[in-house]
Design brief:
Blueprint: H1 3-28, H2 43-46, H3 49-68, H4 82-112, E1 116-118, E2 121-123, H5 149-184
Antiparallel strand pairs: 1-2
Helix pairs in contact: 1-3, 1-5, 3-4, 3-5, 4-5
Length: 193
Amino acid sequence: MCTGKCARCVGLSLIPLSLVCIVANALLLVPNGETTWTKNLSSHVWYMAGFIGGGLMVLCPGIAAVRAGGKGCCGAGCCGNRCRMLRSVFSSAFGMLGAIYCLGVSGAGLRNGPYCFSNNTWSSPFQDSNGDYLLNHTLWSLCQEPPNVVCWNVTLFSMLVAASCLEIVLCGVQLVNAAIGVFCGDCRKKEVG
């Protein structure tokens, strides 16, 4: 496959994934869709891993990859898109770091569980369970407030984990693809956009 076409395909996949991460992180800020509980959130939500790491830090390489799939920087592809591919190498590495950050924080948030009102105090009742609460749904009733917060957090942190895993793979693919594009140029003919 041509490096330019591959870059465009990867970029068009990274952009929606980054938007999914941004939306999932925004929803984590409003447990059960209510702003009443925003002051009582786990620290993993406030690290903004989905917004910053899996979102903005991956959106940049997504856009760079789409641009690298276009015509060369001198108009008709005279440099074989090497300049844009070089930019895509650096931005893909940057995006991979963001996706790894998102995966780490989201995985920890999933393992530790939500911060909720339990046993007459605000705490993280599942913090020492090593994620065992995920399989034992009867434990979810330990969190009395916010309502349905365990399901809310599990769903959204799982989405962030899945999206960031895909982002890591796609950024890695684009890193290799762009490096090949820097050395070999774009295989497309000059008149093709």
